[in-house]
User: Fold FAD-dependent oxidoreductase from Kitasatospora nipponensis.
Amino acid sequence: MAQHLVVVGGDAAGMSAASQARRRRGPEELRITAFERGSFTSYSACGIPYWVGGEVAERDALIARTPEQHRARDIDLRMRTEVTAIDPAGRRVRSRDLATGAERWTGYDQLVLATGAEPVRPALPGFDAPGVHGVHTLDDGQALLETLARFDPRGVGRPERAWHAVVVGGGYIGIEMAEAMLLRGYRVTLVHRTPEPMPGLDPDLGVLVRRALERLGVEVVPGAEATEVLLGADGRPRAVRSTAGEHPADLVVLGLGARPRTELARAAGLALGVHGGLRTDPTMRVLDADGARVPGLWAGGDCVEVLHLVSGRHEHVALGTHANKQGLVIGRNLGGDAAQFPGVVGTAITKVCDLEIARTGLNERQAAAAGLRWTAAVIESTAQAGYFPDAAWMTVKLLAEQGSGRLLGLQIVGGAGAAKRIDVAAVALGCRLTVEQLVFQDLAYAPPFSPVWDPVLVAARKAAGQLGRM
Amino acid sequence: MAQHLVVVGGDAAGMSAASQARRRRGPEELRITAFERGSFTSYSACGIPYWVGGEVAERDALIARTPEQHRARDIDLRMRTEVTAIDPAGRRVRSRDLATGAERWTGYDQLVLATGAEPVRPALPGFDAPGVHGVHTLDDGQALLETLARFDPRGVGRPERAWHAVVVGGGYIGIEMAEAMLLRGYRVTLVHRTPEPMPGLDPDLGVLVRRALERLGVEVVPGAEATEVLLGADGRPRAVRSTAGEHPADLVVLGLGARPRTELARAAGLALGVHGGLRTDPTMRVLDADGARVPGLWAGGDCVEVLHLVSGRHEHVALGTHANKQGLVIGRNLGGDAAQFPGVVGTAITKVCDLEIARTGLNERQAAAAGLRWTAAVIESTAQAGYFPDAAWMTVKLLAEQGSGRLLGLQIVGGAGAAKRIDVAAVALGCRLTVEQLVFQDLAYAPPFSPVWDPVLVAARKAAGQLGRM
Assistant:
């Protein structure tokens, strides 16, 4: 008789696992049921800011695979159906059809938990009002676009001032949404906690992001905690109050990060890590508090913690690329292969208008937290040969460990062609290269693409020099 | 008493070595004399096509460091002075002042040979006529610009046809010069030997380059050997004859590659490798025929052969980035460090108008020559998320070794943002990663920069699948 695979969560990790398992095991061997409480499967949450900003015209462009496409591959996909309990001992899950309210138990042989993350929404006055928007799901994006449609951002009909958007949070989503709201014609205020935006960068590079935002007309309010959304008579935002003052707001966008969505797992008595995520081994099997595998239980995507290969610690890194890889690993293992997800090095990239931003490995705060001793080298260069027309400037900051000379991390802020160079450091971190080894990597050189010494290598040379190794 | 370092050749390798040695040893410890037979030092030969094409306005923009700048660092630089003999046993070199004809011997303690490469120019009728141009040195570029100035490329005064340029050779220089001549308003014919242009690529990717050239209006004549430059009454080109016919030509550009310039070394009895280049150990000390170090003798840049880390063979790879690194290694060693140049993986990159082209490692021809067994995976993807506005297409070809699964090489042809991804594979080759290891590298993902699976990883997944490893 066929085994039964049950998947909780119909996005990247869950449906990659289901698809990969299906590629390897036909319906006669493996029955697959997947539960998704929302209305969409397998979509690009990372694309939402570009859809909201109008660069991507259609919501459906963000959907990599529809429910129908999954069903065509013999996956019994239950949309708008929420899993309300899991029972690992009894190997069953309880689900509720959100349309009818009907509940039922479903038995499984193997269970994949891919419940994702939930955006942080402060339990503070006004934060749950209409017009205060997260941008975590396609439904969130749709709701924000509906709010945008209420206003004419050019200020017609409200001549005393332009329309204002306040973005709360200065990380990736925050600055991407700041750009999106600029593109929609809003005056934008960015309220964030840290001294500079982009806390994944050290402040000496974050300041470059702040200046770029300010040049674009964004009012950046650093070091401030949003404490209240003040509502007008219509029950919608009129301002955001922060520890730095009051900021006019016709709408509010929240970009405060996300936590693993693991209430189900916690309620089922499963062990969670310090960041609240499920812990797995490299095969993506769920571990209990003693580090033993929970029989038949797998997890991947934004609900798990991952091994950071540089710090050696487990971190929560909500990112589609990891979710996809982890889903691949789960699906291969369910299909009889022996696959492992080795971990992450903390690579991330974004842009705000023409400014490219990327980081990988550890920044200074993280290196300190990991108890490491390091040197930091900062260099300025160009992304193309310096004499090339319109060569874009870029700033590179590299951290290397004292003693070993091992590369610890890289940060890049710059113009066109700058940021994707971070991948060189990502692979170098994965291979635990020293900065001297990095200097001699055979990177591509031609004037339209790079100076003769690629900026990443220049930073590595400088760090090696500071360590007395070059 | 100070030691005496003599450098032969004032470009990247030689002057990097001199500068690095000077940083570590002051004039009281180390006297440095450098001979350069030309009029320029430390310039970007790779930039010449962009200068000729008009994208880089000024010749001097290509000069990284002038003779005066070198002299300011206590380097006794003799310009327009050709070294005519080296005497390793007597530790001296003979030089001729090209202005006065005066010759003299100069003793040395340490000698750096950085004589570069010489462009291939066939000993066939007409190839030495005025109007037949190499593009190897700044003087070459200047001469070509002077020829361009003779013509009005729009055809004024010669109404029966537009002006024609024939480019001989379909490698990097050939296609870069084809673009440059297009930018100058010429009709361009590209005559080359191989079935498709860009022999560093396999023909299934080279065909994409040919089609792009043809779309730009270049007449591509593949599989043809140029046999004669036919001259008009003015002693200048009127056509190029090839094994495929006769091609009208008002000027001819040669892009037939370059050989190590090692006549001096050969005349001095030094051993040369199969490609005619000097052989060195990883410290860049010159080796004799028995593999022993020749006392006091160093070499770097386009005149040496380098270890190819994937094939394990020694190759001649004339490229400024290697020359600079080798010069750094020599200079560090002369300064008392212990530095090594580990070798290359064969990375190269270029573009023709909007088409980006890159390769690293081994292509199929090279893999066969190295006696390897491989699988080749070809994939199509986009350089940004597929739904992103103006996402550029790209084709990636990946070679992996059968048995070991080791990455052997990567080739990329595509639009904006495609080619510099080759660096991921370059580092992976340097670290001898398998394709499964490559799949799990933590590459940067955000919609403006990449699909959720970076195209390089997609190619690695496909190859791993073909090898039954995924």
About this structure: DSSP finds twelve helices and 26 strands in chain A. The first strand of chain A starts at residue 3 and ends at 8. Residues 320-334 of chain A form the longest helix (15 residues). Chain A touches chain B through 68 residues (CB under 8 Å).
